[in-house]
């Protein structure tokens, strides 16, 4: 999802110029503008934009007062101050109010683009760290689950943050991925660093769900379908993230590690052009995904 911006400035031409820079440079989407502090506060509280560009000198109140009011009301937007004033005391007040950067007037396209790209990078990093913190909090409830082995963390506990970062939690295939990893890691030295053929792995996993041979055979096909859908969803999530912010740490780490990067590039191009994949199916390397996940879990769990 592109970042959302709100511009609060009493100069209509400045608002228009800033909106053009933001949207022409692909920095995000301007979802609202306002010409005064009180109007801006109401709009920001209503729309909750990711980033606010706030003029320092507004007709009804200065931008610092508006930011202080928003903070007091629980606003979590990030702020960039815009002003002709270069008084050091005023600039210091602005930074103490919690702004990210200061853009000087008259507006310079290169400066605005440079500053806002830095703000976007900070936002992406902060969002990524928040997701990690959220993942860790959710895992706190798993501390008392039975361990996978003496002194070892449960496989499920180790794998959950990875699946969450890939956007696979909630996909029906995520249950199969967890079952496969528990199965493989439970076999210890019998597996070593290599996976059995996929069909055999599907069969072993299916045998943990079903007992009758005919049911196991049907479940093998169902597992493959669920797995392909889940990994295609993960690939799409990462490709969308890469289109929004190619330097996002989550994209940079997971995309080339878990997927063939050519498949990632193809998916990014499909999304950018609004095309559907051929035959409605995305291309994913299931064996690579499972092998990388298995090795990463082995390292984490000391298996």
Would you mind describing this structure in some detail?
The chain is of the alpha/beta class. It folds into 2 domains: 4-124, Response regulator (Rossmann fold); 141-301, no CATH class. 60% of the residues lie in helices and 9% in strands. It has helices at 12-24, 37-47, 63-72, 88-96, 109-140, 155-165, 173-186, 198-209, 213-244, 249-258, 261-273, 286-301, and strands spanning 4-8, 29-34, 51-55, 78-83, 99-104. Strands 2-1-3-4-5 form a 5-stranded parallel β-sheet, with helices on both faces. The longest helix is centred in the middle third of the chain and has 32 residues, at 109-140. The modification 4-aspartylphosphate is found at residue 55. InterPro entries: CheY-like_superfamily, Sig_transdc_resp-reg_receiver, ST_Response_Regulator, YcbB. This is Response regulator.
Task: Please outline what is shown here.
This protein is α/β, with parallel strands linked by helices and 303 residues long.
Topology of helices and strands:
Layout (H helix, E strand, L loop, with lengths): L3 E5 L3 H13 L4 E6 L2 H11 L3 E5 L7 H10 L5 E6 L4 H9 L2 E6 L4 H32 L14 H11 L7 H14 L11 H12 L3 H32 L4 H10 L2 H13 L12 H16 L2
Parallel strand pairs: 1-2, 1-3, 3-4, 4-5
Helix pairs in contact: 2-3, 5-6, 6-7, 7-8, 7-9, 7-12, 8-9, 9-10, 9-11
Radius of gyration computed on alpha carbons: 25 Å
In helices, the fraction of residues equals 55-70%
Q: What is the average of the pLDDT values? A: 83
> How many domains in all?
2
Which structural class fits the helix and strand makeup? Answer: alpha/beta
What does the main sheet amount to?
5 strands, parallel
Distance between the termini: 38 Å
- Which residue ranges are poorly predicted, with pLDDT under 50 across at least 5 consecutive positions? 142-151
Organism: Paenibacillus mellifer
InterPro entries: CheY-like_superfamily (IPR011006), Sig_transdc_resp-reg_receiver (IPR001789), ST_Response_Regulator (IPR052048), YcbB (IPR013972)
Keywords: Phosphoprotein
Pfam families: Response_reg (PF00072), YcbB (PF08664)
